[in-house]
Write a structure and sequence with these properties.
This protein has 258 residues and is of the alpha/beta class. 22% of the residues lie in helices and 27% in strands. It is built from six helices and 13 strands. It has a seven-stranded mixed sheet. The protein has a six-stranded mixed sheet with strand order 8-9-10-11-12-13.
Length: 258
């Protein structure tokens, strides 16, 4: 069911949580000032059935943007976004991913997307906006999301770590922040809105069966763990969600992070 997100005006969240599995992920629906946002689309059609029912119930117009974010481009998180076009009957989907995922998606790189592990064919897919792109002219941002703004920020949190973020400003002033947290995959992003944070698969990135996959980088992951701790310690966050399973407490995250 919908619940209010603290720390951001006029924002609700509808979590679609599934039992942890390597064949699917959680999906989070946000309504930010009347604008709908999906974080991940999962890989199970029944999950998207639930999502679509929720989207339809919000009664937006067909030309309203629905922002679909791929937190990282592994098939269990994004497959339905690649193949299920029903969302186009609700509104106008705008697909956002990390710029590092743009080429693998276009090339239908089943190895990068981890789809090869389960012999799942993936189509070529072109996202609309690549976050952390060095060339903002790669897409006509103001045309794709009129009334929105995107700002880049870099913060040195230690002598050897630069934390990059991009802030998406909504037309009514709310913001959603993307944080660059590679290691589990080159395109991994954490996402915050008010007191909500989506950590993706970072808390599980050192588990057996995850370490060693294509895109896994233990050096970057070690830096990312420090980035995540900085984000948690320097932001008021009360709803801590991941790509798999139920929300976590701060204590649980501290125990999980290496």
């Amino acid at each position: 069911s919908w619940q209010e997100v603290r720390g951001i005006k006029d924002c609700r969240i509808f979590p679609v949580i599934r039992k942890p599995s390597v064949t699917g992920s959680n999906i989070f629906i946000l309504n930010i000032g009347g604008y709908l946002v999906l974080i991940d689309t999962g890989a199970q059609q029944e999950m998207m059935d639930t999502v679509l029912n929720v989207l339809y119930s919000e009664k937006i117009t067909r030309n309203s943007p629905i922002i679909v974010i791929f937190g990282h481009a592994h098939f269990d998180h994004i497959y339905q976004g690649l193949v299920d076009r029903r969302i186009e009957s609700v509104g106008k989907p705008v697909y956002i991913c990390h710029t590092a995922a743009m080429e693998p998606l276009i090339n239908a790189d089943a190895e990068y997307l981890q789809a090869k592990l389960v012999d799942l064919p993936v189509p070529s897919f072109r996202a609309d906006i690549g976050i952390f792109s060095k060339r903002k002219t790669d897409c006509n941002f103001s045309h794709i999301l009129p009334g929105f703004q995107l700002f880049h920020n870099e913060l040195s949190i230690s002598d050897d770590i630069c934390l990059k973020s991009e802030e998406l400003i909504f037309p009514r002033g709310q913001s959603l922040v993307f944080w660059d947290v590679p290691g589990h995959s080159p395109d991994s992003m954490a996402i915050t809105a008010g007191e909500f944070i989506h950590l993706g698969d970072i808390p599980f990135a050192t588990n057996p069966g995850v370490a060693g996959i294509i895109g896994y980088d233990p050096v970057e992951l070690a830096r990312t763990v420090r980035k995540i701790r900085w984000i948690l310690n320097n932001n008021q966050l009360s709803l801590l969600c991941t790509g798999h399973g139920n929300p976590l407490t701060r204590e649980m995250i501290e125990k999980i992070l290496p």
